[in-house]
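Researcher: We're teaching a course module on how sequence relates to structure. For the next exercise, students receive a sequence and then see the predicted structure as tokens, so they can try to spot secondary structure elements on their own. Here is the exercise chain.
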Amino acid sequence: MQEPPSKSIPPNDRPESAIVVRHATLADAPDIIRLVIALAEFERLPPPDEAARQRLIAAAFGPQPRFEIFLAEVEGQIAGYAFVFETYSTFLALPTLYLEDLFVLAEFRARRVGYALMKYCAQEALRRGCGRLDWIVLEWNRHAIDFYQRLGAQHLRDWLLYRLDRDGLEKLVTDSQGSGAGG
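Model: And here is the predicted structure for the students to work with:
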């Protein structure tokens, strides 16, 4: 019996068989912190201090985890991560898996690690019965924007991101005059 001729697979269509994505455990804490620091360097932001690092690990692996971390490994080396948590859509009446961070170390980029992490997040969203997967991206991160568009993601132009930082939260809570209320 003859074997069928082998097909050449273009580089971007190769299976991610060498990439393993898994849920992080407490034993991964040093690698997680290393990746978070690398993300801060990439974004030119100050990395978390020691107290923030401890809070991050406690929030991920404490008795009531606030988020989950998926790690991507290439040939046994931690190459990237995705931080996710659930929100809820009142109109869909379904949970949403929110992707807080997706990061791949520079030496593993262009090896489909980001794709493997996104695919894993999508599979997890479907497994949980989520109606969608949401995230934000920095407007200067053209590589990420192009990547997400290749995946078929939609830029929601009608939605504006707003934030109250810690000072804003405290001011709102202690505002006895209701000076910020418009309705």
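Model: If you want an answer key for the exercise: The chain has five helices and five strands. Residues 1-14 have pLDDT under 50 and may be disordered.
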